[in-house]
Amino acid sequence: MIEDVRSERPALSREEIWRGRIVGIVSELVDLGEPVVREWVDHPGAVAVVALDDAGRVALLSQYRHPVHATLWEIPAGLLDQEGEDFLAAAERELAEEADLGARRWHVLADIFCTPGGSNESLRVYLATDLHAVEHSFERVEEEAEMELRWVPLDDAVAAVLDGRVHSPSATVGILACAQARAAGYATLRPADAPWFR
Fold first, then answer.
1. Which of 3, 139, 144, 148 is catalytic?
2. At what angle do helices 154-162 and 169-183 cross, to 10 degrees?
3. Which of 10, 42, 66, 78 is the most exposed place for a label (fewest CB within 10 A)?
4. What are phi and psi for residue 40, nearest 5 degrees?
5. 59 phi, psi to nearest 5 deg
6. In sequence order, what DSSP letters do the residues of 7-30 get, joined into one string?
7. In whole angstroms, what is the distance from residue 57 CA to residue 116 CA?
8. Is 144 assigned a catalytic role?
9. What would the pLDDT profile of 136-193 be if each residue is shown by its tens digit?
10. What is the pLDDT averaged over residues 83-92?
11. List of domains in the chain
């Protein structure tokens, strides 16, 4: 069995180079047998949701992402930027705000570090089923104002990932993990409150 393990290396010094609205850039002098400088993005973490309807379709949203100069097909997702907010509550909020949906059943599909060589961003991907429409007061602005929701059969979404037509890490991981879970009869899913290695 393979399993990631927590392994702390001493930071001899730490400097916050820059802090923005959401992320910061940190420089640490780390003891790796000899002192080396490591600069990385400090990120609050995020949650994402594979919303799967009774027909086996996944809710995908198109959203413009300026750093990569592309409009990507993604799953509903958002930052863990509200102090003290429960992870599942954040996922429920994002599903409502971005897709006007709620779900009666929640499970964990996957947990990943998005770019572990350069950021501490951790992402939990949930599976939401037994969906229903919800109302909310959230106003979609900026990139979110242009989002389009499309229901895509899970097999078509898998093909889009494997053909190189979908590039979002949350969508890629979520879609493939959902397909694997389906192949196992959903027996391998973790509960929504499963421990998170972050």
1. 144
2. 130
3. 66
4. -150, 160
5. -80, 115
6. ----EEEEEEEEE-SS-EEEEEEE
7. 31
8. yes
9. 777 766 767 689 999 999 999 999 999 999 999 999 999 999 999 999 999 999 999 9
10. 94
11. 11-42 (no CATH), 46-191 (3.90.79.10)
